[in-house]
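Protocol step 4 of 6: structure prediction from sequence.
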Amino acid sequence: MEFLASSRERVIDRFTNLPNDVACHILSFVSFRDSARVGCLSRRCKELYLGVRNLDFDSAHANYAWDRFRLLNCLDRFMLQRGEKDINKFRIHWIFDRENNDEYFRIMSWISYAVKCNVGSLIIELSMFGEMTLELPSCIFHCKSLRHLIVDVLNRGGKVLKMPSLACYSNLQSLKLKNVTIQEEFGKWISECCKSIKELSLEQVFKTERISIESLSLESFSIACNYLVCSKDLLKLSVLNISGEKLAKISIVWQAPGGIDYLQIFSPNVKDLTLIGIFRNYISLGTLMCLEKSIISPVGIYDSNKALEVLCSVSRAKVLNLMGDIIKVVFRDGCRTPPLDNVCCFSVLSVFSSLSDDLVPPMATLLKTMPNLIDLQLSSAVISVNSRTSSSGFNISYWKSLNLAFVDRLQNATLSILNGNNEVEFAAYLLENATNLKKMVIYHSGQHSAIRWLQNKSVCSSTANVFFMELVKRN
């Protein structure tokens, strides 16, 4: 017994002896549930528990009515005891198991409480039920301390969050909205009232046909719509205008069936541009003077002049990713592409064959304009056992006759050999002539008759490391 007593005397409570800021910072990394347990240990622990500035309210573990009732009361009591100490970050993840007005009003009160406590970052993740419709309290957008706001609302009944009237100035620097209903006035509010905003992300936005944003502070803009999850309430986006001198990154991925009718971008200093989806009538990207990386995969552009204009806009990129269809459209009427001297990494994705007979001539013309190319990727989107793609008309002699300047500089190549022989001939050409080639990766179906011949040739003709990766076909 004397030994046990002496052992207890040697125990040092290192946690409660820490400075308040350090101890509270440690508690901010654990769940609210565990933090509350720590607060029950002593008066000092309770003081630290109530001083935590990063709060995370989550109903994931409250699966039964009694558990939810206890959790609601515990959170209310916590905020009452905590007072109005400042909050750095407040996240609420709440799953409504049924239509419950009491829970709704409590959640709104928690959000209002966070605003009173000068919250800096607010994350609202809600799963609504049935016909419930949620409207954010307007005090959020009047909050001078709020810098980062994320709103994500999942509703099984089809109704989503509605933004309030936004006739107020905001100090927001980052705004991310998902599954949110917005009106046309939203773009005007961003342009005129959010003078400090740097990042804007919109995903699955509903009930709007026009978004026009002109911002002097915006640095990153993204908008996305996935056709797999869009509903009847998701309308075609008729007009999308984005303008900003400081914009460095723009990502537009719009795969809803209606597509975008009118797209205009004015951001001459953008460095990273992604453009994927359906674009109907008009698309203008302007002159992109500082472009470093671009992914261009537009569907719906059938006019060769429009396709060429898009290609001219991204011609300064160092890393360029294109869809095979736009390459064919550009050269369909004999159009000429501008020199792509800056391109050092070039990637092309085609549907069935990475080098079908109708793609080889325009691809060859495009490759002529890339003398500084060091990384080349040609891949197929679909592995089909029933593909009838013509891919057998261009051999090694054809590629040699082009005198492609990039071949002497090429260091890495990735090819898909799935449905035809053009890819085999091109791979053999590179292995034989690309003297600085260090690595080649070849994806194949395992049933192509020329693969074994190409494996033997890679051993005899090149010092590069060649990797053959077999893929599984889908019927």
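Step 5 (inspection) to follow. The first strand starts at residue 54 and ends at 58.
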